[in-house]
């Protein structure tokens, strides 16, 4: 018996799906919004989550991002309303995300819930796997060796670190490497807690960072511990820190200076002792020019700044990464694809503007399109996603886009494909018409 969470705002669909899941002998809880799902996940653990891509208060990709930062990650199945939309999403998410499309049958849910119950794989040819530095970083190029040296040295201290680099270079993976190196240096097992400053609404930033007391504001039905306190003596990773509203930043400055937090609605200060690793895809010059981060906060966050190299600056690492990604997919889906030398050279010759993230997605797309009965993987003629257009009009999803950009693009191309028919577009997206109108209103640029 599995513990299942179903996150969907379509009541009729939820009732049917719950009935089927319970008939199959599993326990199921439901949530009809992102916020409901966050609250349920705070107090429960699940083996499997069925997740609607588009919810009234945001994209289901935000919840995937949140779940992937937890110590124990359940299997996730994204619910989509149309095979074309499913295809676009497949190129954006990792290999451990499943997909089902509405309307669904009992067999769809059974198959999704049996994803982990796979027979033992037969003996296969294994490509020699590259060394994973700090159990997570791959690469032997000179610029990566310099990065490893910086990680080893900063791990001996408690200095705050700011990671800078283009979208897709792997800033969160580097944060994980610093955390693991610090635990090893101190012979400790402290936690890494991560949050995305760019994904939080202005009203919830203070509560997310510092916590709140029960009844502190409308909707505060229980006490919440903020990420600073949850990190304890470990590491707090603040992703997209430069997207935090400037008028909210003095609250962060005080904690960095005094190492004390006061939960919203509380009167007692709480000591905090975590290392803060922050990240931004903006350059130092852009941060200063656009004043997206206060100078005093920058110097407290960037005690030890690290610039992560773009993939085009370490092309000799591309074959190592390609072998790793392909091996992971082979293990996941019980395949035995192998790279040809000419294919690896094609990967090396491309500049990868979306960096490691784009490389991973391209390999995943190629894996999907390859013949399951063959051991040869089929790379596309160019490295643009074959799922980047759902109509004859030119619309594209590029690596490095925000979740909101992806959601807007899906809405835009779907509406274009049905000549602006919102009811039909909502059906294709697998959401209610009300939710579609809510998203149109939130993004402003889409008018009736």
Approximate helicity band: 40-55%
Which structural category fits the helices and strands?
alpha/beta
The shape, in one word, is globular
User: How far apart, in Å, are the first and last alpha carbons?
Assistant: 46 Å
- CATH superfamily membership of the domain at 142-308: P-loop containing nucleotide triphosphate hydrolases
Query: How many helical stretches?
Result: 18
Kindly report the spatial arrangement of strands forming the biggest sheet.
2-1-3-6-7
Biggest β-sheet description: 5 strands, parallel
Oligomer: single chain
Mean pLDDT: 83
Topology, element by element:
Layout: E1 3-7, H1 11-23, E2 27-31, H2 34-43, E3 48-52, E4 54-55, E5 58-59, H3 60-68, E6 75-80, H4 83-90, E7 97-101, H5 106-113, E8 132-133, E9 137-138, H6 142-154, E10 161-164, H7 171-186, E11 192-196, H8 205-210, E12 211-212, E13 224-225, H9 227-231, E14 235-239, H10 249-258, E15 260-261, E16 270-271, E17 275-280, H11 284-290, H12 295-301, E18 304-307, H13 318-333, H14 341-349, H15 355-369, H16 403-417, H17 422-429, H18 433-443
Helix pairs in contact: 10-12, 13-15, 16-17, 17-18
């Amino acid at each position: 018996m599995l513990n299942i969470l179903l996150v969907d705002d379509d009541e009729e669909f939820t009732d049917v799906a719950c009935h089927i899941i319970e008939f199959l002998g599993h326990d199921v809880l439901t949530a009809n919004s992102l916020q409901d799902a966050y609250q349920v996940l705070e107090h429960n653990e699940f083996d499997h989550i069925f997740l609607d891509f588009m919810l009234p208060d945001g994209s289901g990709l935000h919840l995937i991002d949140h779940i992937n930062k937890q110590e124990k990650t359940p299997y996730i199945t994204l619910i989509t309303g149309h095979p074309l939309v499913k295809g676009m999403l497949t190129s954006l998410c990792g290999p451990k995300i499943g997909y089902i499309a509405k309307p669904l049958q009992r067999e769809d849910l059974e198959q999704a819930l049996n994803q982990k119950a796979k027979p033992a794989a037969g003996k296969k040819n294994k490509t020699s796997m590259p060394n994973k530095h700090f159990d997570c970083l791959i690469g032997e190029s000179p610029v990566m060796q310099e990065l490893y040296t910086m990680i080893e040295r900063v791990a001996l201290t408690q200095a705050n670190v700011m990671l800078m680099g283009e979208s897709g270079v792997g800033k969160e993976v580097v944060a994980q490497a610093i955390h693991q190196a610090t635990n090893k240096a101190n012979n400790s097992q402290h936690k890494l807690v991560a949050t995305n400053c760019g994904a939080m609404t202005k009203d919830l930033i203070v509560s997310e960072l510092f916590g709140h007391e029960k009844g502190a504001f409308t909707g505060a039905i229980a006490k919440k511990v903020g990420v600073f306190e949850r990190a304890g003596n470990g590491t707090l990773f603040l992703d997209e820190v430069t997207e935090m509203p400037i008028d909210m930043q003095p609250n962060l400055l005080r904690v960095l200076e005094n190492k004390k937090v006061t939960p919203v609605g509380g009167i007692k200060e709480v000591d905090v002792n975590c290392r803060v690793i922050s990240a931004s895809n903006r350059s130092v010059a852009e941060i200063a020019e656009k004043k997206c981060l206060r100078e005093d906060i920058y110097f407290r966050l960037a005690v030890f700044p690290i610039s992560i190299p773009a993939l085009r600056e370490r092309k000799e690492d591309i074959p190592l990464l390609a072998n790793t990604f392909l091996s992971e997919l082979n293990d996941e889906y019980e395949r035995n694809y192998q790279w040809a030398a000419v294919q690896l050279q094609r990967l090396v010759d491309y500049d990868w503007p979306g960096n490691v993230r784009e490389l991973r997605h391209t390999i995943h797309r190629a894996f999907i399109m390859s013949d399951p009965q063959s051991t040869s993987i089929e790379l596309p003629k160019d490295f643009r996603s074959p799922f980047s257009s759902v109509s004859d009009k030119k619309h594209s999803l590029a690596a490095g886009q925000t979740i909101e950009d992806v959601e807007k693009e899906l809405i835009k191309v779907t509406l274009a494909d049905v000549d602006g028919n919102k009811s039909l577009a909502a059906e294709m997206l697998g959401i209610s018409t009300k939710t579609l109108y809510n998203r149109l209103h939130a993004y402003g640029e889409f008018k009736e």
